[in-house]
């Protein structure tokens, strides 16, 4: 109630019929609207009516970046160990993968770990400047035999466009038109490949190619490395003659 001057008496309240909000003790409270009471519902010839609790199942596939937990060698460096910059984004491979592609960086060779880390950072910067989301290959191999985690085991890399989603790419740091690869590089790469098979990343019958075998008139991974790919038992020499000498 209020008086003829519109003043609310002490202890009184006022209801605004427009806002449907009651003012009580200087606080605004939304006026309660009673829920409708329904006793019966008549449904005729309908298959889209559900009565009672409905359970909805949601399946979510969560991808995690594959870590080679089985490879704990001192010569294997994970991303944080070579101070990799964060990736701009990742897309994941459907494992297991049936192909491995070998390429080279075509830059100067590195024979000490710190030099190879410098080379890794330069390759990553170069690839990201060119619009890649990260360093291109899944793994890289230094001239001293160190193996570096690039994009990782289950992230699709960037080496041969039409093969990226179905291959693991490995780049040898250095220019193998000029430098001959050494024994330890093959030994450590072979251990890496065996680990990828054991961890279910690679199929046991995977096929290995040099990059130039899939991209005719290409130099990478260089003739001095192509001539040694026979060291890998899974190498397929199809297209070898299409590789440029440098």
UniProtKB/TrEMBL annotation:
Question: Per the database record, which ranges form the N-acetylmuramoyl-L-alanine amidase domain?
Answer: 87-222
Q: Name one GO molecular function term.
A: N-acetylmuramoyl-L-alanine amidase activity
An example of a Gene Ontology BP annotation on this entry?
peptidoglycan catabolic process
Where's the Peptidoglycan recognition protein family domain?
Answer: 77-215
Keyword RNA-binding found: no
Q: Does the keyword Calcium apply?
A: no
Q: Which keywords appear in this protein's UniProt record, sorted alphabetically? A: Immunity, Innate immunity
Q: Which InterPro entries match?
A: Amidase/PGRP_sf (IPR036505), Amidase_domain (IPR002502), PGRP (IPR015510), PGRP_domain_met/bac (IPR006619)
Q: Which family does it belong to?
A: Belongs to the N-acetylmuramoyl-L-alanine amidase 2 family.
Name of this chain's protein: Jg26736 protein
Q: Which gene encodes it?
A: jg26736
């Amino acid at each position: 109630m209020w008086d003829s001057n519109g003043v609310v008496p002490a202890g009184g309240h006022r209801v605004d019929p427009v806002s449907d909000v009651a003012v009580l003790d200087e606080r605004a409270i939304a006026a309660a609207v009673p829920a409708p009471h329904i006793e019966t519902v008549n449904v005729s010839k309908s298959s889209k009516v559900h009565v009672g609790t409905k359970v909805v199942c949601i399946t979510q596939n969560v991808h995690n970046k594959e870590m080679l937990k089985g490879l704990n060698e001192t010569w294997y460096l994970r991303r944080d160990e070579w101070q990799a910059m964060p990736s701009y984004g990742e897309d994941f491979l459907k494992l297991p993968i049936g192909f491995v592609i070998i390429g080279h960086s075509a830059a100067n060779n590195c024979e000490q770990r710190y030099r190879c880390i410098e080379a890794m950072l330069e390759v990553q910067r170069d690839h990201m400047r060119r619009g890649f989301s990260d360093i291109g290959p899944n793994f890289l191999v230094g001239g001293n035999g160190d193996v570096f985690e690039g994009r990782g085991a289950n992230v699709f890399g960037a080496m041969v466009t039409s093969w990226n989603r179905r291959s693991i790419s490995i780049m040898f740091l250095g220019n193998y038109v000029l430098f001959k690869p050494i024994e330890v590089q093959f030994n450590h790469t072979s251990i890496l490949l065996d680990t990828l098979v054991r961890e279910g990343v690679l199929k046991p019958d995977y096929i290995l190619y040099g990059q130039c075998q899939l991209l005719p008139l290409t130099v990478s991974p260089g003739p001095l490395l192509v001539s040694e790919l026979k060291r890998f038992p899974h190498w397929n020499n199809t297209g070898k003659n299409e590789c440029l000498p440098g």
